[in-house]
Design goal:
The chain is 44% helix and 12% strand. It is α/β, with parallel strands linked by helices and 401 residues long. Keywords: Glycosyltransferase, Transferase.
Length: 401
């Protein structure tokens, strides 16, 4: 597996790769992870790619230089007798993975994890300029001629957005098979010109995480008890953490924990400055075990991203923990268990506060939604999706012959 982001940095892509690796290894397969790392890994199955010194955008180690990364991967893939290359990102580690795989005649599977058009707009400095540079560097390593975009789509209405969609679609079309965790993102990719065989395949949680979650009881909000809410994700504009803070301000009788760090940390602290100390605790980045601890303390999990997320792993963790889930993005409704989640009536703070107030006023709904989440638990296990992933690998190997 080739990725631009891996442990010990935190994020959904890292969590997915960890889950894939554990499930495949338990089935008897050998898995290697190739990624830029701040230091060499003690794990012999995690291989460090050439990594830039003193440059880590958004806190992530950065693969550089590209040619050295491709040459390193060629050596490593050949030496380790790798049979299929599974790429998880779109930056320079990913491009090196394509280069090395093609040089060795290996099939490539590409998972499209997220909307880099939204991410780059939200996180990069001077995005109108930096996306031009990023697209040009990507195009230098991989042709963008296979992308035929539909500029009438609302999410592709700007030149900057089309630049990033062209990058995503081109890379998908250079793969032998594409995996997308959600139907809503898959539909957008096909509409924008992805022609490679594509499988919608849900992410999942590995057995070790489900074991750590344990066997939670359905949540109950008892008389006189404060509603406890948890929010978990990157503190970044595309995740809209300030919408959560604003909703909390509108809703007395609620306490909350926020878990995550990022470029919006200072803005979140400023937005929460007028809240009493006991109303909101912002933890920063913590290990997955502490995320699960926070979920055990909560009555409900909230996601405030809009028109960005594909299939957030934290929602799968919440479902496995028996948490009702409230989302502000209608696209994410497809991953909610029947009766176990809710989409807010509007995506703003008022809509979120309204949804949470409904749970405060009808605590029996929390118990019912929690029971529905727990009944869905088997569907979020990585083991449930492992055989389908192996089928994708076999299809890619057949296509590459």
């Amino acid at each position: 597996m080739v990725t631009d982001y891996y442990l010990p940095t935190l994020g959904g892509v890292q969590t997915v790769i960890k889950a894939h690796r554990e499930a495949l290894e338990q089935a008897g397969h050998e898995v290697f992870v190739f990624a830029p790392l701040a230091a060499e890994s003690d794990d012999p199955h995690v291989v460090r790619l050439p990594t830039a010194r003193g440059f880590a955008p958004d806190g992530y180690p950065f693969t550089w230089p590209p040619q050295a990364a491709a040459e390193s991967l060629r050596r490593e893939l050949r030496a380790r007798r790798v049979e299929v290359v599974h790429v998880h990102t779109e930056m320079f580690a990913a491009l090196a993975g394509f280069d090395a795989a093609r040089a060795l005649g290996l099939p490539v599977v590409q998972t499209m994890h997220g909307r880099i058009d939204v991410y780059t707009r939200s996180v990069l400095p001077l995005p109108s300029v930096t996306t031009m540079l990023l697209a040009a560097m990507h195009r230098h390593r991989m042709s963008h001629g296979r992308a035929r975009l539909d500029p009438t789509a609302p999410y592709a209405g700007t030149r900057m957005a089309r630049r990033m969609w062209r990058l995503m679609v081109s890379q998908a079309n250079h793969a032998d098979h594409v995996v997308v965790p959600s139907a809503h993102f898959a539909a957008k990719l096909v509409a924008q010109g992805v022609q490679t065989p594509l499988t919608v395949l849900s992410n999942g949680l590995e057995a070790s995480v489900l074991h750590a979650v344990g066997s939670p009881e359905p949540r109950e909000l008892r008389a006189g008890e404060t509603l406890r809410v948890v929010w978990c994700g990157r503190l970044s504009p595309e995740k809209r953490p300030q919408v959560f803070v604003d909703a909390l301000r509108r809703l007395p009788g609620t306490t909350a924990e926020m878990i995550g760090d990022g470029v919006a940390r200072r803005a979140v602290s400023a937005a929460a400055a007028d809240l009493p100390d006991e109303r909101l605790t912002v933890h920063g980045a913590v290990p997955q075990s502490q995320v699960l601890d926070a979920m055990r303390r909560a009555h409900v999990l909230v996601s405030t991203s809009l028109d960005f997320d594909n299939q957030p792993m934290v929602i799968l963790e919440g479902i496995a923990s028996g948490l009702p889930v409230i989302v502000t993005d209608p696209d994410l409704a497809e991953m909610l268990p029947d009766g176990g989640g809710q989409v807010t009536p509007t995506p703003d703070a008022a809509g979120l506060a309204h949804a949470l107030r409904g749970l405060q006023d009808a605590p029996d709904r929390i118990a019912a939604m929690s029971a529905a989440a727990l009944a869905h638990r088997a569907h979020v296990a990585q083991d449930t999706h492992r055989d389908a992933l192996l089928d994708v690998y076999r299809a890619a190997m057949t296509a590459a012959r």
